[in-house]
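I would like you to help me understand the sequence and C-alpha cells below and explain how sequence relates to structure.
___
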Amino acid sequence: MGVRIERTEIAGIGVRHDVITTSGQRIGVVIYRDDRREIALYEPDDPDSIAQSIFLTGAEAETVADLLGHTAVLSKLSELSGGVAGLFTEQLILPADSKYLDGPLGDTKARTRTGVSIIAIVRGTEIIPSPTPEMILESDDVLVTVGTRKGLDELVKLLARTAT
C-alpha cells in the first residue's frame, strides 16, 4: 500500500503536507515562506485541529529528514544481509585523513583487497547507490558496505591508511 499524502497551499503562509498513516493518524508538515517548518499532530476527529506541534528551523528540518530518510534506506539495505550467515552490512565513515580522500573509489581496490562490496555512498542528504570506481570520495562520506566480518575489519584498516 502506498503512502497517502495531501498537499494544501496556505495563502500568504506556505504549504502544508499531511501524511495519513495506516492507523489513520494525520501528521502535518507546514513549510513557511520564512524557511521555518512545523511538524503537527492533528486531533483524530478533526484534521484541522492541532493536538501538538514542534517548530524547526530549515537546518533542523533537514537534519530530521536526513535521519528519517537515511535510517529507512539503510535499514532496508541492512535487511539484505539479515538472513545470510556470516554476511554483514555496515556503514563506514571515510576518515578525514584517509589517503583515499578526494580520489576515485577504484583506488581503494576494496573488493579485490578485502572481498567487501561498497553498495552505496551516503553524502550529506544524498544517497548514491552502486557507486562506480570513478566516484570521487569526499570528506564525511559514509560507505554502505556488505561483506564478512573479517573483510569489513580489513576495509576499516584500509580506509584508515594515511598518505605518507
About this structure: Residues 62-159 form a domain with the Alpha-Beta Plaits fold (CATH 3.30.70.1450). The mean pLDDT is 82.
